[in-house]
Amino acid sequence: LVLSLVCCSDECVIVEGIFFFFFFQAEDGIRDAQESRGLGDVYKRQAYSGTNESELAAFIDYAQAYPKGFLALIDTYDTLFSGLLNFNVVALSLLKIGHRPLGIRLDSGDLAYLSVQVRADFNKMEKEYGHDYGKLTVVASNDINENVLHSLNHQGHEIDCFGIGTHLVTCQAQPALGCVFKLVEIEGEPRIKLSADVIKTTLPGKKNAYRLYDKNGSAVLDYLCGSDEEPPQAGKQILCRHPFDRMKRVYVTPHRVESLLELVWDNGKLVRESAGVMAARERLEVSLGEMRDDHKRSLNPTPYKVSLSEHLYDFLHKLMEHEAPIKTIA
Fold first, then answer.
1. CB 194 within 8 A of CB 201
2. Can you name the residues that pair with 257 across neighbouring β-strands?
3. Residues linked to residue 240 through DSSP beta bridges, in sequence order
4. How far apart (Å, rounded) are the C-alpha atoms in residues 160 and 168?
């Protein structure tokens, strides 16, 4: 609900509802074709037999209520031999009176196979009636998660859009996002938190962050340095160090350098307004596109590197040594 409200607040994001199964079950057939505002007459002309009439009546009602947003759920009774045919009837009627249907949604069965069959039917309808019918949208839902998406891509499908609900809001692969707030500086004095678990040790002091790119435009690593250090420059070699493993270090000559830090909150005041949901989405898509494929693969991805400047590395380990208590063994 919160996400929907945020999206609605951005004029560029269109939030649509869904077509529930009970909408079909509540119908008991076409009562009066004369009252269907032109959407019932095609039923007779098409001469489909064996389709569910209650489903057709529900499609007609839905199309009358949302002529510009007709996206039909077609698997209530039989996807290919009822739902798809009934959709075609109403879709053609909408086109006849000047409205373009959006497409269909699949919510059960073999999504890859059904989507291919639906697309083939759409293409066939386009050859007969035109209207770019073959480009109507095919939406798929039904407990879709990452594994299902990878499987569908492997099989081959004709799905344009995925409706992901349960696995989006619960994220069963990682049900909690671990986020913590750690103090790194107070009144100009750097602070550090030590831990027996090295990954929980914080990086002290005010810092700047940069992303370094190679000549192919791929992100190589993110580079952290003190706020008073010179930023890395394109074409100039710099030493990048692993925060805690002194043997892991590399010289990098970046082809391009991007500053990542943007000040949003300063001295208790908001100093930069949000660019909006669509801008965040576009930024994410661009960032993902700049990552190498081995970083993005689902099985055993290559960890993306976050490195420190030599000065920040030295300062970190000096402060770690200073703050760690010295044990006494007698």
1. yes
2. 212
3. 250
4. 18
